[in-house]
Amino acid sequence: MFSQIDKQILKSWRQYAIEPRLAKMTGRVLRNTGPRIAVIGNCQSFGVAYSMKLMDPSATVDHFSAIGSSRAHMSLFVKTLATYDYIFTHDFVAGHIRGGDSKDLCAQLPKTFVYPAIGFAAYHPDMILIHDLSRTHGFLFGPIGPYHSAIGLFAFRKGLSLEECNALFNENVFEALGYFNVWNDAASELINSIKAGCDIDLSTDLLNWSRKGVFMFSTVHPKSFVLYDLARRLWEKVGLTPREVDFSFYGVDDLSRSEVFPVYPPIAKMFGIRGSYLFKQQNHNFAHTVGDFLTLPQYLSSCYKTYAATEAAKLYNARVEAWLTNEDLCSSLIKMARENLRAGLTHSL
User: Fold this and answer.
1) DSSP sequence for 37-56
2) DSSP states of 63-78 as a string?
3) What's the confidence (pLDDT) of residue 287?
4) Is residue 64 located within the same domain as residue 23?
5) CA 98 – CA 59 distance, rounded (Å)
6) Which of 252, 216, 251, 184 is nearest to 117 (CA)?
7) Are strands 148-149 and 279-280 parallel, antiparallel or unpaired?
8) pLDDT for res 241
9) Is the four-CA dihedral 42, 181, 194, 104 of positive or negative sign?
10) Closest CA to 81 of 123, 114, 37, 122
């Protein structure tokens, strides 16, 4: 089966080598007469590519998804990308393209501009990934893909019941775990990583995003207006002039089709927004189904089933491991779980 990159390579050569000749023969006027732009990367890269097309409708903007494995070799990929005027890429590891990674791409095409992905944890401080240590890049998938709750994993590892686990999702527990004090570190990490990765200052943009409310679907999935602002900064960095446009009129939140991790109500209250314990499952086929959501009890029950069917060595997360080795914290969390349960502080909706 061909990957998205394989298909995009074929499409790229058709656009570059065949369509101009056909247009010349038929007298058809080509619409895409502007620069050729390639955007390569993870799940955020489509939003960047879409934004760049909006900033110059005459440009040819092609998106190459570095997710999964392609049949194409790096030599063909480099030859294809050499036909573009501008290349923007996330770092990607070997395996997505046979014969190399993003460093190899940059070595062969020095005009490639590398930019980091957006990450921000303040709205979702409980969200973690569980690393399967038996695989180099392996992560455990649960009811909402790779997104897990640190509290949920901790409760399972300590042998707490589902009801006790449910009772941990309360303000006193979040306070004990420092979940209300994440913003400053998250902001610094985001600004510094982008500054170090591609010498772009997003401090003003971050302030503007926060004024619009929650700007992340999860710690690694930003909303589309965030990616538009990043794309605009990338264009300015390479000397392109972005078109002035009201992005809110054209914006497409492609990442809303993926899993959505909720902003827990006590955390949302701190930011003056509405929160919930409603977890959205991925759905990339809205044309066929409206998708599904899980309440907190449903989510935790499904997580417990996943963890019970998984070898203990494959349930690794550094943060949770640190909690488990902290006897005072463990005792405090278990005590709060039982006290909250007796007080009826559980969630059913």
Assistant:
1) EEEEESTTHHHHHHHHHHH-
2) EEE-SS--SSBHHHHH
3) 74
4) yes
5) 29
6) 216
7) unpaired
8) 93
9) negative
10) 37
Residues 69 and 97 placed together within one structural domain of the fold: yes
**How crowded is residue 4: how many other Cβ atoms within 10 Å of its Cβ?**
15
Is the domain of 53 the same as that of 141? no
Cα-only R_g, the chain: 23
Number of domains in the chain: 2
Rounded CA-CA distance 145/141 in Å is 5
pLDDT at 45: 96
Evaluated on CA atoms 276, 280, 286, 291, the torsion sign reads negative
In whole angstroms, give the CA distance from residue 186 to residue 122: 6
d(C-alpha 217, C-alpha 280), whole Å: 10
Residue 97 sits in the same domain as residue 53: yes
C-alpha triplet 334, 335, 337: angle, nearest 5° = 65
pTM of the model: 0.92
In the three-class reduction of DSSP (H, G, I as helix; E, B as strand; rest coil), residue 286 is classed as coil
User: Do 51 and 161 belong to one domain?
Assistant: no
The pLDDT of residue 70:
82
pLDDT for residue 137: 64
Contact yes or no for 155/321 (Cβ under 8 A): no
Given a cut of 50, the residues of the chain with pLDDT beneath it are none
Q: What is the pLDDT of residue 135?
A: 67
Asked if residue 138 is part of any domain, the answer here is: yes
Q: Are the C-beta atoms of residues 334 and 158 closer than 8 Å to each other? A: yes
CB 316 within 8 A of CB 133: yes
